[in-house]
Write a structure and sequence with these properties.
CATH topology of the largest domain: Quinone Oxidoreductase, Chain A, domain 1
Strand content: 15-25%
CATH superfamily of the largest domain: Medium-chain alcohol dehydrogenases, catalytic domain
Organism: Noviherbaspirillum autotrophicum
Number of domains: 2
Pfam family, one: ADH_zinc_N
Bound molecules: NADPH dihydro-nicotinamide-adenine-dinucleotide phosphate
Structural class: alpha/beta
Shape: globular
Keywords: Oxidoreductase
GO molecular function: oxidoreductase activity, acting on the CH-CH group of donors, NAD or NADP as acceptor
Protein name: 2-alkenal reductase
Length: 328
């Protein structure tokens, strides 16, 4: 089967040559192991950070080894009593058409009411990220205004919809008219600002007439700065991502003074460090998706070989919704 390894670390922007496609033999299973055919690979912005050898919350991706990544697939052979052939499972089997697991981090999935791929999106790590930042850090009350950047994406789309369900005014920031129209018309946000249109501060002011009570920050840069200037007293900021700076772009913040004058709180978080809350969050997200009350959209690249280009596209905003690679 085929897998993709990290060939070299990026200098600035990621390029296809940072990856290498390899053929590897199917390994013989040891007792306790499970062989899985991956149906979908999740591509996520955090992978960009792992490609670098710098101090971070996790160890860097080793060169020459299978690129890290979340997967969903099907058990095709099992020497583990907890898993049988045909089980649908979610794991971290990487950029690979197949994978072997010892079962410890493998989760069995029920696809009766939830499509398999959603377990990599709204009912998986990205959905959980939205849920954590919203419920644990932003804690918005009914009637408050929240803003989320990368609003049409895997995480952002869930943040706004959960906020609406809690009675908030939800405002998104996204790149381009098509994404903004989707965020308002399909996802039900109250407004969405196209940062590429060039009037970000003025458009944000119009969309947040009562100021901003809480921000879910995915991007950094000018959108974040514009939000700071609109914050209400004791506003909360969940710092989830800074994708506009992942290739090393500088990100000056001009409105630092708002932290003082508005007594703001900002907290960064890594969703995988809060596993104790995942069952609760995933239950809420799964119920909403199964009932059709939480919508999501996917960009699906075809075949493992397309993963590097799709990943580079994700870092440039070419995806529209959760970026996946279809493998089987
Ligand atoms: P998305 O589906 O939102 O895709 C990324 C989006 O980011 C793009 O579609 C694009 O949207 C936007 N983007 C890309 N480059 C830029 C840029 N230079 N400037 C502005 N916007 C840009 O990805 P996810 O939902 O998976 O991730 C969203 C954020 O959440 C990321 O920052 C990620 O690192 C973070 N994250 C953090 C976690 C945590 O535990 N802290 C866990 C999971 C995700 P547009 O076209 O609208 O600009």
């Amino acid at each position: 089967f085929k897998r993709i390894v990290l060939a070299s670390r990026p200098k600035g922007e990621v390029v296809p040559e940072n990856f290498r496609l390899e053929d590897v033999p199917v390994p013989a299973l040891k007792d306790g192991e499970i062989l899985i055919r991956n149906h979908y690979l999740s591509l996520d912005p955090y992978m960009r950070m792992r490609m670098e050898d710098v101090k971070s919350y996790a160890a860097p991706q080793p060169i020459g080894e299978t690129m890290i990544g979340g997967t969903v697939g099907e058990v095709i052979e099992s020497k583990n009593p907890k898993f049988t052939v045909g089980d649908k499972v979610q794991g971290m089997l990487g950029w690979s058409e197949m994978g072997v697991s010892d079962g410890v981090m493998l989760r069995k999935l029920d696809t009766t009411h939830i499509p398999l791929s959603a377990y990599l999106g709204a009912v998986g790590m990205p959905g959980m990220t939205a849920w954590y930042g919203l419920t644990q850090i932003m804690q918005p009350k009914e009637g408050e205004t929240i803003v989320v950047s990368a609003a049409s994406g895997a995480v952002g789309s869930v943040v706004g919809q959960l906020a609406k369900l809690r009675g908030c005014r939800a405002v998104g920031i996204a790149g381009g008219k098509e994404k903004c129209d989707y965020v308002v018309n399909e996802l039900g946000f109250d407004a969405c600002i196209d940062y590429k249109a060039g009037n970000l501060p003025a458009d944000l002011a119009k969309a947040t007439p009562n100021g901003i009570d809480a921000v879910f920050e995915n991007v950094g840069g000018e959108g974040f700065d514009a939000c700071l200037a609109r914050m209400n007293p004791f506003g909360r900021i969940a710092l989830c991502g800074l994708i506009a700076g992942y290739d090393g772009q500088p990100m000056p913040i001009n409105n630092v003074r708002a932290f003082l004058t508005m007594r703001l709180t900002m907290r960064g978080f890594i969703v995988s460090e809060h596993m104790e809350l995942w069952p609760q969050g995933l239950r809420e997200l799964g119920t909403l998706v199964a009932a059709g009350r939480l919508k999501f959209r996917e960009s699906i690249a075809d075949g493992l070989a397309s993963a590097p280009d799709a990943f580079i596209g994700l870092l440039k905003g070419r995806n529209f919704g959760k970026q996946l690679v279809k493998l089987a």
